[in-house]
Description:
Elements: H1 3-30, H2 34-50, H3 55-61, H4 80-105, H5 107-133
Amino acid sequence: MEKNFTRILDTNLNRCKEGLRVAEDTCRFIFCDDILYKKIRNIRHCVSEYLADKYEELLKARDSIKDSGRTAEEAGREDLKNIVVANIKRVQEALRVLEEYSKILNFETALKYKSLRYEVYDIEKEIYLKYFVLRK
Length: 136
């Protein structure tokens, strides 16, 4: 695989798993919602599994020292809702990138990432309505 292509996959795998971990920990420790946190944990495990056979190649292509995103400005967060929404959106975007670039490697893998993306859309709605609309 071409190095920059591999870096895109690696970056988006990391981005996706990080965003899922934030959502997972929020559901587990703040909302105390075992069902939602386990759904998110399962998605996080699947995200890693689908490209697990490429781990060494992805790691070799990583160049976090020279990555221009390393010094990108960060936005503040006003509240828990903003943290959750920002991270869920990050996950959805990363899954879309993984879906598109996986089409070159393995179309079945791309379809798996697409399916996960739609699961995350449903989870986003469930979290938002349950914890930010109905709790008001």
